[in-house]
Amino acid sequence: MNRLFLLAILGAVTSATAQDKGRATFERVCGQCHKPEIGLGTRRSKAQWQETVNSMVSKGLKAPDDELTLVIDYLSTNYGNVIVPATTAAPPARGRGPVSGMGSDDKHVVDAAAADRGRSPYAAECINCHGTHARGSDNGADLVRSLVVLHDRYGNELGPFLRKGHPTQTTPSANLTQTQIEELSHLLHRELYATLRGASDVQNVLTGDAKAGAAFFNGAGKCSTCHSPTGDFAGIGKKYDPVNLQQRFLFPQGGAGRGGRGGPPSRPVTATVTPPSGSPVSGVLVQIDDFNVSLRDSSGEYHAWKRTPGLKVVRNNPYATHIELLDQYTDKNMHDIVAYLETLK
After folding, report:
1. Per-residue pLDDT reduced to its tens digit, 10-36
2. Domain match, 255 and 328 both
3. Residue 89 is assigned to a structural domain of this protein
4. By residue range, what is the domain housing residue 257?
5. Is 123 in the same domain as 59?
6. What is the pTM of this model?
């Protein structure tokens, strides 16, 4: 038998064995806390899978480093982003793999120089209808909201659309070259991202009445029953800007506010679960829905139950009062409170 053929067979067997080992390790390690298949609908890069596993470890997942490495390799090999070749005018692009989470797994990375070059064909052929920043006009559509542009990656959607024939200012769109299409794609995505960034710019929230905020704090809001301007809130107006002040009093369980993603709350939600037969178990709540509930007790041990009619679950959320107030605040209340808190320096 041909030696190369034998080597090929041996390589295939070795690869299959490694795959089987990776799969088995993944199921055993990740199955400690949940069904292993949870989350596999989203394709992620190796770095993103590493971040996911690190997050699980921080929540109590226990496994040797070599097994965690096997899990990450298995996930990135089988559920990683699909790489597709880029054109000569575009930077390397990630393929459009299945996406089940928010956002795209294959964000178009704008080449600034190509986008600048795309301004010339845009001005010559598109600007009269679609406007200076592609936001549309009385004569043409808003391209920032166009599904063709949103789905486009380096001209792969825009090109076929234009080649079918689309009215332009001078020549048929089918006459545009591939390079021009790719440069237009970079330009349009730059305008798209600029629009998204502009939409997320936080407006001035320091518009309330500080005296009215103090009255609400000490009166109807009952904030002073738990907080004190000379105690835990002393200097809070100097510690946080108005935007973060608003974020923190509205959603104290959510963490860091603008400029960062909040970490775990300093006062976790706890629960006591009493099975139909057996002793109650208390600890930090991990997950609860209509079907399952899980927690970690004081020793760090993980417990999970299916929610049946006989299972009793009592939750203790230290932020329950803040949650209730969300239904009571008026816009004026919120801005008045921010104005008051900002004075506590």
Report:
1. 454 445 576 778 788 888 888 777 666
2. yes
3. no
4. 210-264+322-342
5. no
6. 0.41
